[in-house]
Amino acid sequence: MNLIRIDKPVTFLLPFDRYSLTLSHRLLDSMGGVSRFLLRAIEQQLSLAALIDITALSEAVLLNQLAYLQAHHYLQVEESVDGLLLWLTPRGASIVQVERLLEGSRLSIWMDAFTLSGHAAHMMMLDDCAKLAPPMPDSDAPSAVVVNVPRRTGRAGRARLFDDANRLRGLLEQSGLKQLLEHCWGADCELIASEFEHWAFELGKDEGEQAELQVPVEYAAGELLLRLKASGNQCKPGALPLLTLPVIELTHSYNQVAHFPWSVDLPPTCVQRIELVSSGTLNRFAENAVAEAEDARHSKLPMSPETAVPAALGTVTVRPGISMQASVRTLRLLCSMDEVQFSRHLQCTPDALVLSHNLMTTETAELA
After folding, report:
1. Residue-range definition of the domain harbouring residue 237
2. Number of domains within the chain
3. Which of 117, 212, 218, 343 is most buried, with most CB under 10 Å away?
């Protein structure tokens, strides 16, 4: 299949929205505050007398609470001549460690605001929220090709939050949750795997100062490959917005000069098309790929033609007795881009964890 290669660097500016992500643990959430306190206190080797003094609970109530924790394998209770001996089981020690990990577990994340399919999602967590994103490219540079990717239209407010929560769930139900926790706590944290079935999360709207962000994704010269896309009803929607590519179409048609006494062989009509981003010749064309009108849902590649006439147009020589007529048409072609290649470029965002729907491996997990 013929692809259109853009031989200039191209930077896409992608809209993202900020959300808060709160991590939690089902077993920990099911425990009351007293139970959680007792586990922490027993880890610190506090005696039964000290627990009674601190909690102001009666001995009978406290013993019932300890019996509950023992029945659920969080601690062991043993009588001795000095009184009750209390110590945590491995299960109880893990719960205490989990509670420590979850302190300050409200994270700021960014969800894409440009994909068009419900299953398609990109999530980003930046290491340094003060910087938010790498520096934007200099759009005034002569060689710069900067494309603003449009925000998707649709539901707003709580409905949008619900939609994005489902999109995030699709990412985290695969290997995304493991990657997220390892990014937060380190890949050597054993609790990530041992407690995996109990981790849960909740997405909320982040009310921070900057609720929106444009993230640059850069393609080097020759990296961006485009595929023509049919317009109208024949166009099957993809996950990424379509692009429109500016093109100039030059047509040379020939006729015999009037009153020329000799017969001549007329050359066939010649049509040449040059894309006006990097001045490359188009060897593939389809009339139904021509964009019929401006559409705010499309990403618009800007025209940046060379100052000189492209060498690919060549020189036209006309033989005696033949007249030539040249006509020019400017148009925009609907194109799609490789979505996997796009996601791999997005992964290169510095100082960030990026999860992309089409680069995930499936893992079985039940999330809240």
Report:
1. 228-336
2. 3
3. 343
Q: What's the CATH number where 83 sits?
A: 1.10.10.10
Q: What is the Cα–Cα distance from 185 to 102, expressed in whole angstroms? A: 10
SS3 call for 338: coil
Beta bridge partners of 16: 112, 213
Cα–Cα dist 38/44, whole Å: 10
Whether residue 327 is found in the same domain as residue 352: no
Residues 246 and 307 both lie in one domain: yes
Same domain for 143 and 216, yes or no, is yes
Max Cα–Cα distance, the chain, nearest Å: 130
**Does the predicted model carry a pTM greater than 0.85?**
no
SS3 assignment, position 6: strand
d(C-alpha 188, C-alpha 181), whole Å: 11
- Give the model confidence (pLDDT) of 39-91 as tens digits: 999 899 888 888 888 888 888 988 899 999 999 999 998 887 777 888 899 99
Q: Do 143 and 19 reside in the same domain of the chain?
A: yes
d(CA 7, CA 275) in angstroms, rounded, equals 11
Alpha helices in the chain (DSSP H): 26-30, 33-43, 48-55, 59-71, 90-101, 157-172, 176-185, 190-194, 339-346
* DSSP output for 186-198: -TT-HHHHHTGGG
